[in-house]
Design a protein that fits this description.
Layout lengths: L1 H29 L34 H12 L1 H4 L17 H16 L3 E6 L12 E12 L4 E3 L2 E3 L12 E13 L4 H11 L5 E6 L14 H8 L7 H20 L3 E7 L6 E2 L10 E5 L1 H8 L6 E11 L5 E7 L3 E11 L8 H20 L6 E8 L7 H9 L5 E7 L11 E7 L2 H12 L3 H4 L3 E7 L8 H8 L4 E8 L7 E3 L4 E2 L7 H19 L9
Parallel strand pairs: 5-6, 6-7, 7-9, 12-13, 12-14, 14-17, 15-16
Antiparallel strand pairs: 1-11, 2-3, 2-10, 4-9, 5-10, 8-18, 11-13, 15-17, 18-19
Helix pairs in contact: 2-9, 9-14
């Protein structure tokens, strides 16, 4: 009888533990109620080729598509026009503090000025509140050579900066790893235990692994329950699932650094065949982290014992990075109130079209619409291109901190939007920080008939008090009581996110713009902005 009762109690305890875990999981997510809840391969593209123009069926009324087209194209092609790769220069796109980002700022400044806005270019600096805002590692050069018994092969790759002990400002550091073995990263507890024992028996090596977890953007990834919930039901949301995944990622790096003395780095291969991830990191990695495409990764995986790798990186720790916010002011009747329409204009080391040349092009197109139609707003409107977003929302942080006296009432933020992808289809998340603001604005968005006109992408309204993982979040974290925000972010899973490859012609590239969606999203932003800044009898709906 005692044994039977023991088994019964054990079963009840197990059920209780499972129930408590499920309740905890959903309770921690419940504070953010979510109301609605292809990658094309380019192999023969060259910058000087004739470019296919937009779909001729696009209605030219509303936002000026020709103008937006030129902005998006010019920002995307900076990776080609500003760097001389044939001379060994790294093409860093519009990366934070690079000459590509500086060129983008010039393009925005010139266009804002030409359309008649009061334009300023504010350089980002450290502030009293943020004394270490403008700093980071700058990768000056890197290389990767894989060797087997018969050949040497240079691979299309990317390497993150390596975190240094006591970095010295503006001192160039060279790190190299020669004739290094490759080992497969374990994925079981026993495998890690065995690898830990063998670590002391061998020379220097790197671990090879694929991109896993919810952050990989792989639509076919095998995910844990919390990651599945994050992707399928609750995106976008920053909840314990996100923190848990981030914690696992950090813990693995610390574990490798501390426990595996002979491991000098990792090589990570992507789930896509011809692109590799270009996540931007100004803080540096604990170990060298080389990222390659899926084709090359699987090639090594199938014959890793016959491969050795040489890789090097030249980097510098910089405390005086040059970056700008570009601001175009359209003065209103009441100069004591401001509505901001913004987007990031920097990028990772790629064309950075969807993230976020398109969004920046729409911001510029909306500004041009207001000027072309001689619309006089009842409050100030600032059209802003924020620098350094990919390095940690730095432009928005600097602006919010240095404009404390400005009464910002509303923010319309654009991030990654209008990239064509059919499999799997994307969702345009329209994220509001306040429920009342959402109920006010959503009927205006519904007037656009988005789902009927953009038939390959869904749209969903979300209430998230902290805002999107975008520039609007800075203002929500510091001025939530004063400001109402709406942010547009198309995702999950957007396969081309932060991807680059094939001489910068695959991944997040200009050829993947959905011009019909650009038209519709531009119309939505115009209508929201008119609703917020124009007297009702004067509103011109697109």
């Amino acid at each position: 009888m005692k044994q039977k009762n023991f088994k019964k109690n054990l079963s009840l305890k197990s059920n209780n533990i499972i129930a408590i875990y499920i309740i905890f999981l959903f309770f921690t997510m419940a504070y953010i109620p979510n109301i609605c809840g292809y990658y094309k391969e380019i192999v023969d593209y060259k910058i000087n080729n004739k470019i296919k123009f937009k779909d001729p069926s696009i209605n030219e009324d509303g936002i000026d598509i020709d103008y937006v087209y030129s902005i998006i194209q010019n920002l995307s092609y900076i990776i080609f026009t500003e760097y001389n790769e044939s001379a060994g220069e790294l093409a860093k796109g519009r990366g934070f503090g690079t000459k590509g980002e500086h060129k983008a700022a010039e393009i925005l400044y010139e266009n804002m000025t030409n359309m008649g806005l009061i334009t300023t270019k504010e350089r980002l600096n450290n502030t009293e509140k943020y004394p270490n805002l403008i700093k980071g590692y700058n990768v000056l050069d890197y290389g990767l050579t894989l060797k087997n018994e018969t050949s040497k092969e240079a691979l299309d790759c990317y390497i993150n900066a390596i975190k240094l002990k006591n970095p010295i400002h503006e001192k160039i550091v060279n790190l190299s790893f020669n004739n290094t073995k490759i080992k497969i990263m374990p994925n079981t507890t026993f495998g890690w235990f065995k690898a830990l024992i063998n670590d002391r028996k061998e020379g220097k090596y790197v671990f090879l692994s694929d991109i896993r977890s919810v952050y990989s953007r792989d639509p076919n990834a095998s995910l844990s329950l919390d990651s599945l919930l994050l992707r399928k039901m609750f995106y976008p949301i920053q909840n314990p699932c996100v923190f848990y995944n981030s914690f696992k990622k950090i813990l693995k790096k610390e574990f490798l650094k501390i426990c595996f003395k002979n491991c000098v780095g990792t090589i990570t291969y992507d789930f896509t065949n011809d692109t590799h991830n270009k996540g931007f990191n100004t803080n540096g990695e604990l170990l060298a982290n080389v990222i390659i495409n899926g084709t090359n990764g699987r090639k090594i995986l199938n014959d890793y014992k016959n491969y050795k790798v040489d890789f090097y990186i030249k980097e510098m720790y910089n405390k005086s990075i040059e970056s700008y916010n570009v601001i175009g002011l359209l003065e209103g009747t009441d100069k004591n109130k401001t509505v901001i329409v913004d987007c990031l204009y920097d990028s990772v080391w790629s064309q950075g079209t969807g993230d976020a040349a398109i969004g920046m092009g729409i911001v510029m197109g909306v500004a041009k619409y207001f000027q072309d139609h001689n619309i006089h707003p009842k409050c100030n409107i600032k059209f802003i291109g924020f620098g350094g977003e990919e390095a940690g929302l730095l432009g928005a942080i600097y602006y919010e901190d240095t404009h404390q006296d400005e009464k910002i009432t509303h923010i319309i933020d654009l991030n990654q939007v209008c990239s064509s992808q059919k499999n799997p289809p994307l969702t345009l998340n329209v994220v509001f920080n306040k429920l009342s603001f959402m109920w006010d604005i959503w009927p205006i968005i519904e007037k656009s008939n988005y789902t009927q006109r953009v038939n390959n992408t869904d749209i969903a309204k979300r209430w998230w008090p902290s805002g999107n993982p975008s520039d609007d979040r800075v203002f929500n974290m510091n001025r939530w009581l004063q400001v109402k925000t709406v942010s547009f972010l198309e995702d999950f899973p957007w396969i081309a996110h932060h991807r680059d490859g094939l001489n910068h012609t695959a991944g997040d590239v200009f050829d993947h713009v959905d011009w019909n969606e650009v038209k519709v999203v531009g119309e939505i932003v115009i209508n929201i902005l008119q609703h917020l800044t124009v007297e009702p009898e004067s509103i011109r709906y697109s």
